[in-house]
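Escalated from tier 1: coproporphyrinogen III holo job.
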Amino acid sequence: VILSPQHPLSAGLTSDSRLVRAYRGERSDATPVWFMRQAGRSLPEYRDLRVGTRMLDACLDPAMASEITLQPVRRHRVDAGIFFSDIVVPLKLVGVDVEIQPGRGPVFSRGYADAAGVAELTAIDPARLDEASGPISEAVTLTVAELNTTDHGAGTATPLIGFAGAPFTLAAYLAEGGPSKDHLAARTLMHADPGAWRALMDWTAELTGRFLRTQVLAGASAAQLFDSWAGALSLTDYETHVAPASAAALAHVHDLAYETTDASGAAAPARSVPVVHFGVGTGELLGAMHAIGVDTVGVDYRIPLDVAARRVGEGVPLQGNLDPALLAAPWPVLEAAVREVLRRGEVAPAHVFNLGHGVPPETDPTVLTRVVELVHEASA
Ligand code: CP3
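Tier 2 regenerated the structure:
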């Protein structure tokens, strides 16, 4: 499927941005940088806007979601916006009873840890999401309209990254009925009732894949699959019980492509939309996470980028991986750490600077702006 000519990748607005070039393995004038959780509680303008609105209501208000997505791009001049939403939004949109509790995370009215629970979920047709995702498409459209006019000195528009939760990370919340430390309910179901587990994974894969596809069709220039809690799994369990579902989710965007031209302006082969895969504590899984068919692997802060590069194999662009704890350290300490991440990232064909996980809510936002400036200067 070829994206519409108005899509920022097809229109040539973001196809040669620092971010998209890095995701296809090319270096450009400077290393691109964005931060997981850049939109959110570290910004006073976010906290002001959110007063009186619940998290999932904010996600489903297109003007608000778009404004929150744009706030960090304006303030920090990062090389990408990440769509303001949540991994449980597609569940909410098809009618699953979920809310996001401040300081806690997604909480369901019940757990779905056995065959009967899974059967209740799978009775919902994931295709229903397409009829319900108007607020998502609308928010992306509004966001991209502004990003298309936002050039922070890179010579291109700023791309939007769309995202979705991977089936395992969603199942970790669903099985438990809320956040947990070890994701025990999901890991038990996987072994206690492999058939029910498989059904749950197939269903979440289709739902979350459709959520991701909606964002790309509406204008996102890249897609990130968050398997945040995959690090709780052994390599064998990941490969057997999880990786096929993550691949199935990504199949919903892998067929999306944009047309390109060569230097003479003649039509060149279509390129697919770049896909990134990230999880926390996934040092042992990096090769397998790459193998499901992604362009770029996101690395958490526990493993240096040059070590990660050896594990994913040659030629794979990497994203990461400053320890978020360093954001609260004295500037000379933070500066040295940023430079170290850049240095280790040089072994990969291309590097997208990011944190090893999300921005802590108490982060001083002026520090993030300074890190963006440093990454651009030091890598130029
Ligand atoms: O800036 C961005 O990164 C974009 C927005 C974004 C949010 N959630 C907004 C959000 C993204 C990409 C996510 C993904 C997400 N949601 C993940 C995967 C990424 C990761 O962090 O590992 C996960 C595991 C979730 C589930 C979830 N939602 C958690 C764990 C929490 C935090 C709970 C808390 O309050 O500490 C949420 C809520 C959430 N999602 C907030 C934001 C800005 C905080 C809501 C608030 O302002 O109260």
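The chain has one domain: 18-379.
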